[in-house]
Structure formats: C-alpha cells, structure tokens
Design a protein that fits this description.
The protein has 289 residues and is an alpha/beta fold. Helix content is 35%, strand content 17%. It has 9 helices and 8 strands. Strands 1-2-4-3-5-6-7-8 form an 8-stranded mixed sheet, with helices on both faces. Helix 1 links the parallel strand 3 and strand 4.
Length: 289
C-alpha cells in the first residue's frame, strides 16, 4: 500500500492511494471518500488479482481540495472528468473501474463518456439515476429509512464523538438483516472525521453523508444510454439495501448488456468484511479480461 498523495487534476488536487505493484492490471475504485472502499478489500484485490488498485477522495471529501460542500461550484460531469484526469496523471491509459454508491454514477458516466478508458465496469450499491425522483420502475428509498432520516436529530458535526455516534446509528439503519460490526463502523467513522480538512460542520456533514451530491448539477440523464456499454460489467447489490433498494441493482443488470448480478444476502448499503469472500472473487473475475 502506498502513502496517500495529492495529484493535480483539472485545477484541483485529488488525494489518491494505490495498493499493489506498478505494472499490474489497474483498477480504479470510486466512492465519495476513498474510505468507501475498505483497506482490507483493497489489499485483497491487489494481492489476489493481482491488481494495481487506486482509490481517491472526490472534491470536497477527505484530503482532496475542499471549498464549499454546501454549494459545489462543479457538476457531476466535472467529477467524471476528474476520474479521467486522475488516470491521465497516473499514466494509466485504460483501467477497470468500480463505483460504490454515488461513485457508481461517476463510474457509469466514465464508461459512457470515456469508453476507451474503461476496461470493465463494477457497480456496487448504486442506481442509474441521479439525486431526485427515481424512474417509475425503480424503487425509492425505503419508507423506514426515510422516516429515520427525517426524525434523527442533527448531531454537532464539529464534535468528533457526536459525529461518530451519529454514523453508527445511521449504519444500523443502512445495514442489512445480518447486522453491523459496530466496532468496524465506529473505527471507519473516526477515520472519515480525522481525514476531513476541518471540523467545520458543513465539511464534516459532507464527508460523512456525501451531501454535496444533493446540491450538484447532475444532468443530463444517462440511463437511456446504458445499452451502449460494451465492456464486461458486474452489478453488486445488498438484498436489504434501504437507500437504493435491490430493484435498482437488478435494473442496472438488465440495462447493461451481459451484466452479471451479484446479490448479497443480509446486506444493506455497505461492504462489510463478511461479504468480501463473494465480492473479491467476482471483481477479480470481471477485471480478468
């Protein structure tokens, strides 16, 4: 595993980290914070692939350039251009690409708008439409989760302990029926907090919840173009995901020609250690071409 480094891309600096040996097959992992992709899973993909695994912080998250997460002066397409620019900066003409959650939107658009850069596409816990009302055939956020979101008190995001407790409670609602590893969730939330550039509540809220995406210009639509993706594709989705219910993953697998669907029983919007024995081999397989 390499140390994190700041990479100049499109007028900002993106914090990136690599796992594995230079010259191995490159695999770009996109989340919001790089920590959306757990260390242990990255190490396993790098070792067993073997793959050169790259993960990074988006703008306004982690150690990448942070300005105003509540009013981002960039669009979803700018974040897609950042992903392509990062590959340029790392001298990677083409890479396998995987996106988790909102990172899945960037991964889809990278495959559509920069098809020559993407060797395969893995989409985890995501959907084919941006923030806002879903298409009629796509399930919306679960009512129980939305009730929690609307009723949960706003923590003092400038207080590390309060922020961590809020994220543990959120994980209980985002997790599946198999339950969460509370110690792992608590450690993850603390790392997210500590990697943010300040204790400013807007910055911390965005780092933990990805709230910058709610304020982004995400248009135009892209779902209607998914049939044009011509690389191997893998869709991974938790059977119990309350944020993007599994019907969203099933629709992605139908919309992308030849896509494989891997449904994780007892799993919500998460990548806990207990699913790595299913996730890692599937990702290695789809990135083998």
């Amino acid at each position: 595993m390499s140390d994190e480094r700041l990479v100049p891309v499109n007028g900002v600096e993106l914090c990136a980290q690599t796992f594995g040996e230079p010259g191995s097959v490159p695999l770009l992992l996109i989340g919001t914070s790089m920590l959306a992709w757990p260390d242990g899973l990255c190490e396993r993909l790098a070792e067993e692939g073997p793959r050169l695994v790259v993960r990074y912080d988006l703008r306004d998250t982690g150690r990448s350039t942070t300005a105003d997460p509540d009013a981002p002066a960039y669009t979803l397409r700018d974040l897609v251009a950042d992903a392509a620019g990062l590959l340029d900066a790392l001298e990677l003409p083409r890479a396998h690409v995987a996106g988790f959650g909102a990172g899945g939107w960037i991964a889809q658009l990278l495959a559509l708008d920069h098809p020559g850069r993407v060797a395969s596409l893995t989409l985890v816990a995501t959907r084919a439409v941006a923030p806002g009302p879903a298409d009629p055939d796509l399930p919306e956020h679960s009512p129980a989760f939305m009730e929690f979101m609307m009723s949960a008190p706003e923590p003092d995001w400038s207080d590390r302990a309060a922020a961590v407790e809020a994220m543990v409670e959120s994980a209980r609602h985002l997790g599946g029926s198999a339950g969460i590893d509370e110690a792992a969730v608590r450690e993850h939330a603390g790392r997210v907090y500590d990697r943010a550039p300040s204790a400013d509540p807007a910055v911390q809220r965005s780092n933990h919840l990805g709230t910058a995406f709610a304020a982004l210009d995400s248009g135009p639509r892209w779902r209607e173009r998914l049939g044009g993706i011509a690389v191997p594709a893998l869709v991974i989705h938790g059977a119990d995901d309350p944020f993007f219910p599994v019907g969203n993953g099933e629709a992605l697998a139908r919309d992308i020609p030849g896509a494989e669907l891997l449904v994780l029983p007892g799993t919500g919007q998460e990548l806990p250690r207990r699913v790595w024995d299913a996730v890692a081999p599937a990702m290695i397989r789809v990135t083998a071409g």
